[in-house]
Amino acid sequence: MPTDDTIFDANVRAVIPLVTAALVSRYGDFADCEDAVQEALLEAAVTWPREGRPRDVRGWLLTAARRRYIDVVRSNVARRAREERDAALEVRDTDERDREVRDTDDSLGLLVLCCHPALQPPAQVALTLRAVCGLSTAQIAAAFYVGEATMAQRITRGKRAIDAAGRRFGLPGAREVAERSPAVRTALYLMFNEGYAPTDGASAVHAELVAEAIRLTRLLHTAAPGDAETTALLALMLLTDARTGARADDDGGLIALPVQDRSRWDRAELAEGRRLAAAALASGPATPLVIQTAIAAVHAAADDADATDWRQILALYDALVRVDPGPAPRLGRVVAVGMVSGPLAGLAELGELEADERLAGSHRLPSVRAALLERAGALDAARDAYATARDRTTNDAERRWLSAQVERLSPPDGPTPTA
């Protein structure tokens, strides 16, 4: 799928699951329907810059995807089953049916379908991110720390596995929602992260993608209001999104958390997030998601950066890495160690992550190292670490911020270091 943000912004991504759901609901062939939607997006990438974006984006994509699907069916007329399906397509009132499905939101049904038990959890999440969340294969691969080709194969196999297992599309029952919620939550969490901290593009935040992740999570929460994990996820999203208004300046430049103007944080989202976080903490075990929500709640409670209770945050990270020793929790713990015990202690902890292949090539590790080195007074080493992070990031807003740090720590009229 094209990723040019000037054409396919998050507003367009938000309608992708609706178009996919409508097509699958109508024809039932998940793999070919999802492929048809991707082909429609490619057609849009060619047509829209020349003719302008249509007023009804959802209707345009649905019509284009339906035509693409029918073309695929007709191209396989040598096969009897496809001939029969082609004949059936010819007698339907397509315009009337398109109007009917265009106004239907089957996002929850598509979420549950993508998390079919015939798929392993990683494939469930990857397929959800593609079909429901509208992320590109490259974005999904980055979230899973795997190559793009590997992820493309995983998505293709997932689509075929759903069709082979006898997919059933429609409004999911409570049992289906409960059984497949873990994979759905993981996909929505990754979708939110891609919106709040985009892998690529020019924006510090893709606000519309964040909003769509929250909307879909609300759907899941409404379907299972007593589920502590879903409650925690919604709380985490709200507590994090509350900072969006202060996360970028008027020119789109990134603003780091310690220097954000907290008067610009969304108080309504903070209040709802805290309420939901308290409910999740009271009703379920200390799972990784619940602990992450607690960490976000501690950050949200501080009126300014100096008031942040880093000792409590470190204690929560200690608990988090015991149940989830992945690279992201461990990197977050390094930051907390540096704030509580000093930058040298943080650097010592960071050294243990150097060998983690999942962080190879990531800009986040050298970015954390740079901040710790700067606090320790090693300004030349900090400048070089910022430069390494700058050269590794694929997000323009982050690159501009990291470049500013390199320039700030460079000697007057001195050369800008490169990694």
From TrEMBL:
InterPro entries found in the cross-reference section: DUF6596, RNA_pol_sigma70_r2, RNA_pol_sigma70_r4_t2, RNA_pol_sigma_r2, RNA_pol_sigma_r3/r4-like, WH-like_DNA-bd_sf
Indicate the segments forming the DUF6596 domain, all copies.
180-280
RNA polymerase sigma-70 region domain boundaries: 12-76
Q: List, for all copies, the residue spans of the domain called RNA polymerase sigma factor 70 region 4 type.
A: 111-161
Answer whether the UniProt record assigns the keyword Transcription regulation to this protein. Answer: yes
Domain of life, per lineage: Bacteria
**Keyword presence, Transcription:** yes
Q: Which residues cross the membrane?
A: none
What keywords does the record list, in alphabetical order?
A: Sigma factor, Transcription, Transcription regulation
Q: Which family does it belong to?
A: Belongs to the sigma-70 factor family. ECF subfamily.
Q: By what name is this protein known?
A: Sigma factor
Specify the species.
Leifsonia williamsii
Q: Highest lineage ranks of the organism?
A: Bacteria, Bacillati, Actinomycetota, Actinomycetes, Micrococcales
